Amino acid sequence: MEWLFELFHQVNYELPKFVQFLIVGLTLGSIYGLIAIGYTMVYGIIGMINFAHGDIYMIGAFQAMIVLLICGTLGISWVPLQLLLMLVVAVALTAAYGWSVERIAYRPLRGTQRLAPLISAIGMSIFLQNYVQLVQGPRPKPVEPVISGGVTVLTRADGFVAQLGYLQIVIVLLTVALMAGFTLLITRTSLGRAQRACEQDMKMASLLGVNVDRTISLTFVMGAGLAAVAGMMVTLYWGNNDFHMGFNAGIKAFTAAVLGGIGSLPGAMLGGVLIGLIEAFWSGYFTAEYKDVAAFSILVLVLIFRPTGLLGRPEVEKV
Amino acid sequence: MTAVPSTSAPLVIQAAKEAAWTILVVGLLSFLMVGYQTEVLQGQQMSFVNRFGDVIWAMVLIPIGRFLLVLARGGLLLPPAVLGGIATLYLFGAAVLGLAGSPLYGQLPLPYDQPMVNAIFGVGAVFILAAAIKGQRDRRRGAQTLEMREAAEARQARIARNMSSILGPILIVLAIVIPWTPWGDRAVVDSLVLVMTYVMLGWGLNIVVGLAGLLDLGYVAFYAVGAYTYAKLSIALGFTFWESLPIAGALAALFGVLLGFPVLRLRGDYLAIVTLGFGEIIRIVLINWQSFTGGPNGLGNITRIDFFGLPFERNPAPGTESFHTFFGLEFASTHRVFFLYYVIIVLALITNFVTIRLRKMPIGRAWEALREDETACRALGINPTNTKLTAFAIGAMFAGFAGSFFAARQGFVSPESFTFIESAVILAIVVLGGMGSQVGVALAALLLIGLPEVLRDLSLYRMLVFGGVMVLIMLWRPKGLLAYREPTLLLHGRRKRNKAGVQS
């Protein structure tokens, strides 16, 4: 029995740290998941990698930050109202970016060779980054924390405290709420039905009276809206926005989408949370420098055994 | 589209609706991002500068442009042509004056202070003009049937093919003589060395993407392997460029096989993300493996390129010869640049030659067949994994050569040179050139790499223009500059093909 006791002690000692990494991982994962949905939806419907999506997220973060600053000058200091304004304004204005990017750079290329929209998207990504650098300046923008404090979950003998911040609760709850709403939207509304129809067969859907252009536009609008929410969260969470922040987050989110099975919405969320957890635990227990290597390696491992991702449907080969 | 509407009223109303919608969108896009410029003050405080004037100008000019564009596309050509022409001349003229630093620029009534921003609006005016001219051409030709359009497409493909065979030799001759012409000063040749490096990388990637149809977003990783191989061999073991060139190529090919082996059974975009991840892994390892790669600071003091044993040095060590002493020339810094230029031309032409020959060999045929239909290939007994692996390894080998050359040119390597954006640029060169077209790749490299070199003075706007040009070329020619990508061999000769695009 002695060893069991020992083990129990060990676990008890390690638990607070584990819980802390879990909390951080879930928060990060929520943010990645929200961005990943934008990738996966666009991929599902028109089969292209929207490389500019990470930059849409960056623009969302900037706009949320600007709303927060304007709140400061207008004297709005009640935090829930600030959050609501950030959410509504940033989502609406970022959705306009999503719509415009699709309209300008992708729609004219629909039906051409598959790599053309990809290159157009890479060009758009470079363009958007430099546009933001021009209009907002190259320096990183520090944002003062709006929500601070939290509840103590566990305390260790040596004083290490696992804390669950109020902000982290807000982020995870908001993500869960958005996911629930989104699932309803896809499964219950006519827009969701139109989207699923376009995903299966665009030509047939258009013959049956689905407005394909409008459906695709709305897909981009929704993806950009969710990316804006992620941008707002990261503005509050890290509060250090710069014009190339979208690149890394975009790659991570795209990895998450592929890991979960590209084209699958629950897969994107699952992939996002997994990538978040891998990053948090790897940085916690090993070295922070190689956390991205860990994320990509696990992606490769998963793809070797499940070539269409965790929740992806296997492709049917038509000859 | 070509029929002229009997009354232009509905068209005008339609255009006005579009313009109103554009006002709303431009307003939404620019209100916060342009209207509120955030600034970081002392002590991490932030404030903003309002620039609503810029927002309002955008909300006026862009909808007018949209209005004229809809008119031009609808067949009402005169107003868009006249106004677009005037705006093009005025905005570009003003921008040129402003960039040249003429005092006249301040006198002109212009929407924006920055010449470049006015020039970007001028590009919009060019679009209107182009739409009007295109409308006029279509009207002259009359209505087109589907057959006519297909015939036109076939004609274009034929022109592209002929252009390639004529343009190719002309470009090679031009490339060889340009250092000896009056324009060939050091800066120009230096830029051309860079362009040629990307031509070579583009040709190398073309084997993977254009021939085998595998989307590789991490090509720069092999470039990095080649560069660091030469850097390490030169610093640690004293190898010269020529000795380490084959080793660098072999090592890069080995990395290609190592990456390719587990992942090549993945299809399409799954493969793309894995290659992207591989590129990032290599970069992260280069940054963090301090003791071996020098970390973010990179490796310096790499032996520069030599003329088959003769270094290009002003003062050679006593008892040794330098290039200029051996040939009895006056020392000139251009010697090395010119030599580098010819080395990269030879390397690039080797890449080109090997690709063209490989295309005609069984392996090349297998690549193209695999690109068109993997299932059919498997049924015919082609081993897809081995075939893809060869493409991956050969593509990686050329990237390794180019990387080695890069290190020998710079004398310094750091992870910063091997970011994802490099992979994206190389892929863009391949796709913009028209996949599979060797001359197209060279033209695209000249455009995409040469353009930022020309625009060097416009520092801030350089990459903005670069990204915009990438999008615009793709919109203008979705199949690439010189688009023809038929299999080299077809069963029933050159029949009309109804499928285009990478199938992987």
TrEMBL record, chain A:
Segments traversing the membrane: 20-44, 56-77, 83-102, 114-132, 166-186, 216-238, 258-281, 293-312
Domain of life from the UniProt record: Bacteria
Localization, UniProt: Cell membrane
Keyword NAD: no
InterPro entries listed in its UniProt record: ABC_transp_permease, BCAA_transport_permease
Keywords (A to Z) from UniProt: Amino-acid transport, Cell inner membrane, Cell membrane, Membrane, Transmembrane, Transmembrane helix, Transport
Membrane topology: Multi-pass membrane protein
Alphabetized GO MF terms: L-isoleucine transmembrane transporter activity; L-leucine transmembrane transporter activity; L-phenylalanine transmembrane transporter activity; L-valine transmembrane transporter activity
Keyword Cell membrane tagged: yes
GO CC list: plasma membrane
Any single GO BP term: L-isoleucine import across plasma membrane
Family, similarity comment: Belongs to the binding-protein-dependent transport system permease family. LivHM subfamily.
Cited PANTHER family: BRANCHED-CHAIN AMINO ACID TRANSPORT SYSTEM PERMEASE PROTEIN LIVH, HIGH-AFFINITY BRANCHED-CHAIN AMINO ACID TRANSPORT SYSTEM PERMEASE PROTEIN LIVH
Name of the protein described by the UniProt record: Amino acid/amide ABC transporter membrane protein 1 (HAAT family)
Organism listed in the record: Dongia mobilis
Automatic annotation (TrEMBL), chain B:
A GO molecular-function annotation: branched-chain amino acid transmembrane transporter activity
GO CC annotation terms, alphabetical: plasma membrane
A Pfam match: BPD_transp_2
Chain segments annotated as transmembrane: 19-36, 56-74, 81-104, 116-133, 165-183, 195-215, 222-241, 247-264, 271-289, 339-358, 389-408, 420-448, 460-477
Keyword Cell membrane annotated: yes
Membrane topology: Multi-pass membrane protein
Signal peptide: none
Residues in coiled coil: none
Keywords associated with the record: Cell membrane, Membrane, Transmembrane, Transmembrane helix
Entry annotated with the keyword Secreted: no
Subcellular location(s) per record: Cell membrane
PANTHER family per the UniProt record, alphabetical: HIGH-AFFINITY BRANCHED-CHAIN AMINO ACID TRANSPORT SYSTEM PERMEASE, HIGH-AFFINITY BRANCHED-CHAIN AMINO ACID TRANSPORT SYSTEM PERMEASE PROTEIN LIVM
Protein name per UniProt: Branched-chain amino acid transport system permease protein
Organism, as annotated: Dongia mobilis
Lineage: Bacteria, Pseudomonadati, Pseudomonadota, Alphaproteobacteria, Rhodospirillales
